[in-house]
Design brief:
With 239 residues, the protein is mainly α. The protein is built from 7 helices and no strands. Helix 1 packs antiparallel against helix 6, helix 2 packs antiparallel against helix 7 and helix 6 runs antiparallel to helix 7. The N and C termini lie far apart (79 Å).
């Protein structure tokens, strides 16, 4: 429920850094999605104050992260439009910041595990390393797709896509794991889906408007060039 506030933080920082324009339709989209997700997951867990503060801080930092990432990737002079270039510069810093936490929380347990460094069966160890490698490959693909989406659209669109993924996960949990949902939860699901659909419609309309504007500018420049060429030809004939 608290994680649904991430889209609000992303909107706030996008407006603060002038990446988005303050429009009533955009405010409506964010309120529909965040409110719908809150209703969809209402009373699904017990409240914990420390967890609430941690998730709220993570949502705020996530909003700053993706907003600044959008600024970096959409500045042509920085040369970071390619997701591979962005990952090359950012992922080592992310690894160095998380590695001390990994060592303190899981490092000793993993180093003494019989499945890893104290293995007795080479086949079991190879399967484990293969599973870890597959997970790393999937994580790389996820990171690449996230950076690609931010470079082409915005951090807000990425957050909305992530919320749609969470809705799919929660729906699978109801069908496969037997989770129960109340009428309020289903109403929140409908509200959230309507907000996502409205955002997609707005992005599509905005993209079509930009394409038509570009085509109009190209046609004007072509007409102006033809007029200038025609004037030059007339001057040459007179001389």
């Amino acid at each position: 429920m608290t994680k649904s506030s991430a889209v609000l933080f992303i909107l706030f920082f996008s407006l603060l850094f002038k990446l988005e324009e303050l429009r009533p339709a955009l405010i409506l989209v964010v309120l529909l999605i965040s409110g719908g997700l809150f209703m969809f997951t209402f009373k699904s867990t017990q409240f914990d104050t420390r967890g609430f503060i941690l998730v709220l801080a993570a949502s705020c930092l996530g909003g700053i992260r993706w907003t600044l990432t959008q600024i970096l990737m959409q500045k042509a002079e920085l040369g970071l439009q390619n997701p591979i270039d962005t990952m090359f510069h950012l992922q080592p810093l992310m690894f160095l910041s998380l590695f001390p936490l990994f060592v303190g929380i899981e490092g000793l347990h993993m180093s003494t595990s019989q499945q890893l460094f104290r293995y007795h069966d080479i086949n079991e160890s190879l399967v484990l390393f293969g599973t870890l490698g597959l997970g790393g490959l999937l994580a790389f693909g996820l990171g690449y797709s996230e950076f690609l989406l931010v470079s082409k659209t915005s951090g807000l669109t990425l957050s909305i896509a992530g919320i749609f993924k969470e809705l799919c996960v929660l729906l699978l949990a109801t069908h496969l794991l037997g989770d129960k949902m109340s009428l309020l939860n289903w109403l929140g699901f409908a509200v959230c889906i309507s907000g996502i659909a409205l955002h997609v419609a707005l992005r599509t309309t905005h993209s079509k408007g930009e394409d038509s504007h570009k085509e109009h500018r190209v046609s004007l420049s072509t007409d102006m060039e033809m007029l200038l060429r025609g004037g030059d030809d007339e001057e040459d004939e007179e001389t």
